[in-house]
Write a structure and sequence with these properties.
1 helix, 0% strand, 97% helix
């Protein structure tokens, strides 16, 4: 009788672990998607910053040409 209880407890623990595993797997997928979106936004922001730096350099050159 006691061995059946142990088997049942083990079975329950395994089910709980499998459920938790699936939950963690889903959360991991969501976090990967979120990270990818943030990386894409970061790349876009870097590109915009580089473009603005180029624009600033052009403006500075024009000002220097007007002054000099």
């Amino acid at each position: 009788m006691e061995s059946v209880t142990i088997v049942e407890k083990l079975s329950q623990k395994i089910e709980e672990l499998m459920k938790r595993y699936e939950e963690m797997k889903e959360e991991n997928g969501r976090l990967k998607e979120e990270l990818a979106a943030k990386e894409a936004q970061l790349q876009k922001t870097k590109e915009e910053l580089e473009l603005r730096d180029l624009e600033m350099d052009e403006i500075i050159k024009k000002i220097e040409n007007l002054i000099g």
